[in-house]
Write a structure and sequence with these properties.
By secondary structure, the chain is an alpha/beta fold. It is 45% helix and 18% strand. It is built from twelve helices and twelve strands. Helix 2 packs across helix 5 (107-137), helix 5 (107-137) packs across helix 11 (261-268) and helix 7 (183-189) packs across helix 8 (192-202). This is Probable nicotinate-nucleotide pyrophosphorylase [carboxylating]. One of its GO terms (cellular component) is cytoplasm.
Length: 293
């Protein structure tokens, strides 16, 4: 990934950090899970209690950085006097061997917090990197990559933050902030019109309604009923292109269905507004980052 590409991905809007108040319980829970009933047996036996150390977070491969605050809080939780000095910030392009941050403080605390810090940092950087691979593929098409609710339990806010860092945008955060009418809703309601009518009657005027369609016939019904957003699910490119043409000026269009960096460009060139990709959160590969002396 070139520096210009990385800059283009992050130039749309700055991504504000998540507040520590949200992050600290996740970090504390992870540390408690790791410390178990007796603490860090290995480090406590080998490293003197008064030993101080300076270690560095270093990238092992190229990608996009995300999750620095989680690493900072992990080290700080075990040594309130530690100093975490970032060299880069979330959203930065990483190259192999590049220094990310320096940590000064209790050697025991640094080694004990290492795995929790790296677990969060590597995973969230992997999500940001996966998102960037799609965002890069569809650059200048007018389409945007968006995530889904296919997130790891307990990590949704973090993963969706990493998606934003990687140049993507967020779909709904949960079941309570938007309506998405899918095939099972339609089947149980007895049809598109009835499902839509019930949804409109059941939510307030500020809640957006999206309808999933699989065919052009379903799309025509949805558009005739004034649906605001349509999810065009698993359509081939020709059908997708026709669907976008039908919906233009009438509804926002979102494509979904096993979209990869290799196929995303062709999907975006059909004219869709959004491309929904689930694997950037639920199956993103971690980015290799290490802690070095």
């Amino acid at each position: 990934m070139s520096i210009n590409t990385a800059n283009a991905l992050s130039a749309r809007l700055p991504v504000p950090p998540l507040p520590d108040l949200m992050l600290e319980p996740l970090v504390r829970s992870a540390l408690l899970e790791d410390l178990g009933r007796a603490g860090d047996l290995t480090t406590d036996a080998i490293v003197p209690a008064d030993a101080q150390a300076e270690l560095r977070l270093v990238a092992r491969q190229e990608g996009v950085l995300a999750g620095l605050d989680m690493a900072r809080l992990a080290f700080r939780a075990l040594d309130a006097q530690s100093r975490f000095e970032p060299v880069l910030r979330d959203g930065s392009e990483l190259a192999p061997g590049q220094e990310i941050a320096r940590i000064h403080g209790s050697a025991r605390a640094i080694l004990t917090a290492e795995r929790v810090a790296l677990n969060y940092l590597c995973h969230l950087s992997g999500v940001a990197t996966a998102t960037a691979s799609i965002a890069r593929a569809i650059a200048d098409t007018g389409a945007r990559v968006t995530c889904t609710r296919k997130t790891m339990p307990g990590l949704r806010a973090l993963q969706k933050y990493a998606v934003r860092v990687g140049g993507g945008s967020n779909h709904r955060f949960g079941l309570d902030d938007a309506v998405l009418i899918k095939d099972n809703h339609i089947a149980l309601a007895g049809g598109v019109a009835e499902a839509l009518a019930r949804a409109r009657a059941g939510v307030g005027h500020m809640v957006q309604i999206q309808l999933e369609v699989d065919t052009l016939e379903q799309l025509e019904v949805a558009l005739s009923l004034g649906v605001e957003v349509v999810l065009l699910d698993n359509m081939d490119l020709d059908t997708l292109r026709t669907a976008v043409s039908m919906a233009r000026g009438r509804a926002v269009t979102e494509a979904s269905g096993r979209i990869t960096p290799e196929t995303a460009r062709a999907v975006a060139e059909t004219g869709v507004d959004q491309i929904a990709v689930g694997w950037i959160t639920h199956s993103a590969r971690v980015l290799d980052i290490g802690l070095d002396t």
